[in-house]
Fold this sequence. Notes:
mainly beta, about 120 residues, Jelly Rolls
Amino acid sequence: MFIQKLQSCPEFIAGDNTLLRELLHPDKQPLALRYSLAHAIVPVSETSTPHSLSTSEVYYILTGNGEMFINDQSQPVEPGDAIYIPSNAKQSIRNTGREPLSFICIVDPAWRKENETVY
């Protein structure tokens, strides 16, 4: 059995300027995973830096309210929303609420720096 505690994962600023904690990643734990799982936070009034991944990604909103941008589309998001982001799509998310916007990121195959382009 493998259990990862969020608070035991180091927090760092990701390439898109979100506060990130990687919970599960096949390069960091001895797990047979294709995907990676991370917890992200966008502070109040902030927007993540536009970026794209050569892999698909899913965001699952936990707290806060925001606006998701994928290519030339945007839509409000709130807790309980799952957002599919296709590979190579230009994406960013803005915190439009009064509390931190937190969400889970699932990247499949697992996130790797060489698969990300930051604009």
